[in-house]
Amino acid sequence: MEFTLTTNIKATPKQIYKSWLSPQRHSKMTGGTAFVSDKVGDEFTAWEGYITGKNIELKPYNKIVQSWRSTNFQNDESDSQIEILLSEDGEETTLTLKHTNVPESGEHYKKGWEEHYFTPMKDYFKALNKL
After folding, report:
1. Residue range 34-80, pLDDT digits in tens
2. Is residue 70 within 8 Å of residue 79, measured between CB atoms?
3. What is the pTM of this model?
4. Crossing angle of the two packed helices 13-20 and 119-128, in degrees rounded to 10
5. In the chain, where does DSSP find H-type helix?
6. Superfamily, domain 3-128
7. pLDDT digits (tens, 9 = 90+) for 15-43
8. Which one of 7, 8, 50, 76 has the fewest CB atoms closer than 10 angstroms to its CB?
9. H or E segment to which residue 43 belongs
10. Is the dihedral of CA 81, 62, 126, 129 positive or negative?
């Protein structure tokens, strides 16, 4: 299974990219503890270890590709992959997330991205850009 989600966030692609790959900012941005890196090949965890993966491809301020799995994956299920594309659109950034190789039981991840990433990210950058 795979799906693509798109949202607009009032922030620059650089702000989103750097926040996604910073442990402190990723944690503040989502509300869940994250240990991430901005280096290809490095592993990461998010949401107190609920999500794990590895950086596969990083193109500063435009693209993040990571292997991705949650603790809900069965041991015999391979990692899924997320591809995040960031494109500037006036004062906002269009974030397109393509999630591929998702287990058939993974329909709920669509709602998870909305509730645990996109909504808190919008709030985080709204507050940040008011400073």
Report:
1. 999 999 999 999 999 999 999 999 999 999 999 999 999 999 999 99
2. no
3. 0.95
4. 120
5. 13-20, 23-30, 108-113, 119-128
6. START domain (3.30.530.20)
7. 999 999 999 999 999 999 999 999 999 99
8. 76
9. strand 43-46
10. positive
